[in-house]
Design a protein that fits this description.
Blueprint: H1 2-16, E1 36-37, H2 39-60, H3 69-87, E2 98-99, H4 100-124, H5 135-159, H6 183-199, H7 202-229
Antiparallel strand pairs: 1-2
Length: 245
């Protein structure tokens, strides 16, 4: 399953490296999909399986197995992220209606990845009792928290660009947006690579690699969009990685 996820990451990269996926600011107005859902409903439905599937796997396991403490914390990190993405983020987003086709594939991925990460941590993972003090766990945890903080803060800055009912795009300002166009994407990539280091597992590294291949190109296309659309866009900003790319 992890190898298949890695292959899907490469496929995603090949499909969207040159041409962005057609939603949001990259949607072709003359060729809009017929079926769309409001952004809040779409994000809720898409992200829900990533929270629900691990919870169901844990509930169906008899007796429950999440030992030692490090394993419980790792499972909580994954579910914590998707609790936020499912039950908090969608109700504050002000995005445009979401294409049903992309919602369908996004939901399938969340079911797949939720099962992969949850099954590994609940049924397969074996960690020593002192894993919480291991340098891999502590450094990965710090990266995870840093990335999640950047991601949430960047989402907040993006929401503040629009008043209720507005659909126009503006130049993001503040936070890590001072240095990169895709600050929210950078935060999520850091977050999942931190999770991968903390778990030190193939499923988590495959997911981090998929995240990089999926939203990395989107950050690059956002950067090109801003440069093309706004003549006063800061030329010093990078697409994704501060001071590098």
């Amino acid at each position: 399953l992890s190898s298949l996820l890695g292959a899907l990451a490469l496929l995603q990269l090949s499909l969207y490296l040159r041409v962005p996926s057609r939603y949001g600011k990259h949607e072709e107005r003359l060729c809009r999909p017929r079926g769309r859902l409001p952004a809040r409903c779409a994000w809720f439905l898409q992200e829900l399986p990533s929270f629900l599937v691990p919870a169901l796997l844990l509930a169906l396991r008899s007796p429950p197995r999440l030992e030692p403490l490090g394993c419980r914390l790792l499972c909580c990190l994954f579910c914590w992220h998707y609790f936020y993405r499912t039950f908090i983020y969608p109700f504050f987003t002000r995005g445009r209606p979401f294409p049903l086709q992309l919602l369908f594939f996004g939901t399938l991925f969340c079911i797949y990845n939720g099962f992969l990460q949850g099954y590994y941590l609940i049924y397969c993972a074996e960690y020593p009792n002192d894993w919480c003090t291991d340098i891999r766990f502590t450094s990965g945890l710090l990266l995870f928290l840093l990335g999640m903080g950047i991601n949430i803060h960047s989402d907040l800055l993006l929401r503040q660009l629009r008043k209720p009912g507005e659909v126009t795009y503006k130049i993001p300002q503040g936070g890590l947006f001072t240095y990169v166009s895709g600050a929210n994407y950078f935060g999520e990539i850091v977050e999942w690579f931190g999770f991968a280091i903390a778990t030190w597992s193939l499923p988590a590294f495959a997911f981090a690699f998929f995240t990089l291949c999926c939203i990395g190109p989107r950050a690059y296309h956002h950067h090109r969009y801003y440069l093309k659309t706004f003549t006063d866009y800061p030329k010093s900003r990078k697409a994704l990685i501060p001071f590098v790319f």
